[in-house]
Amino acid sequence: MALVDAMREIVRTDRLLVALDFDGTLAPEVDDPEEARATPAARDAVLRLLEMPRTSLALISGRAMRSLERVSDLPANALLIGSHGIEVRLSTPDAHSTLATSELERVSLLGEVLGKVADSFDRVWLEPKPAGFAMHSRLASVEDAAAAERVALDVTSAVIDNLTVRSGKNVLEFSVRSTTKGDGIERLREHSGATAVFFAGDDVTDEDAFATLRPGDIGLKVGGGKTLAAHRVTGTDDTARVIALLADLREAESRSR
Fold first, then answer.
1. Nearest to 133 by CA among 158, 157, 106
2. How far is residue 27's CA from residue 105's CA, in Å, rounded to a whole number?
3. 3-class SS at 243?
4. What is the distance in angstroms between the CA of the first residue and the CA of the last residue of the chain?
5. Mean pLDDT of all residues belonging to the chain
6. CB within 8 Å of 186: residues ≥ 6 apart
7. CATH assignment of the domain containing 138
8. Distance CA 85, CA 87 (A)
9. How many domains does the chain have?
């Protein structure tokens, strides 16, 4: 199997970075995002990787950092990237963002505009983020979801210039900054001194991260859809099995040194 062969190779690297999306990758999709939790098997594998020498474990998510910390519930040595790279928690448990005053003012205006849109449709709601908002429609009817997204795109483009808009699974994200998960991968690679990267993700926004991978890295797409990743699994249970095997292989390699 090509994925297993690639994993046997990557665990030999000197400094391994294992970077993982959370929702849809470690945790099954749920109606209430704050109820999302990694599957027990995935969590066990993640905790094992966190304890291994010469190995860094990171989560990269579109979630705001506070939400990511709460739902992942990982020790302080886990590296976290939230809000598509705008928020970071690296060597210490303290997270920070770098938004300027002018950006914060644009976020406030964006909230006013999108709030009116969300209020106009049943079961459409906003999730605040440091650099913008995610408009969720997974509980709305197909018709309302499509209409809400269409109206939101029209009104925001008329009021605020140079917004970054990302489309995900039943969510449309608006941000005043264009940072991506690819930027997050590069920051983590530099911070950890990684000589190879394993990244797994399931959503459209994870393609930015797959695009930054280099020869010798591994990209794992979870679920269907077009992807730049070289490998694919079906769902979160498969992800758990893959990272558990990665932990097994890395542990064996460490013992052999």
1. 106
2. 34
3. helix
4. 25
5. 93
6. 212
7. 3.30.70
8. 6
9. 2
Strand partners, 136: 125, 171
State how far the Cα of 48 lies from the Cα of 100, in Å rounded to an integer. Answer: 38
CA atoms of 88 and 224, how far apart (whole Å) = 29
Q: Looking at 146, 175, 204, which one is the last position of a domain?
A: 175
Judge if 193 and 160 occupy the same domain.
no
139 with 158, same domain?
A: yes
Phi-psi domain of 228 (left: phi exceeds 0; alpha: psi -120 through 50; beta: other): alpha
Planar angle of CA 114, 207, 198, nearest 5 degrees: 130
- Banded model confidence at residue 101, pLDDT cuts 50, 70, 90: confident
Q: Residue 93 has what pLDDT?
A: 63
Q: What is the helix, strand, coil percentage profile of the chain, to 5?
A: 45, 20, 35
Domain match, 87 and 106 both: no
Nearest residue to 11 (alpha-carbon basis) of 200, 195, 238 = 195
Which of 79-83, 129-133, 154-158 shows the lowest mean pLDDT across its residues?
A: 129-133
Q: How far is CA 76 from CA 1, 23, 53, 137, 196, in A?
A: 35, 20, 16, 33, 22
Among 127, 148, 175, the domain-final residue is 175
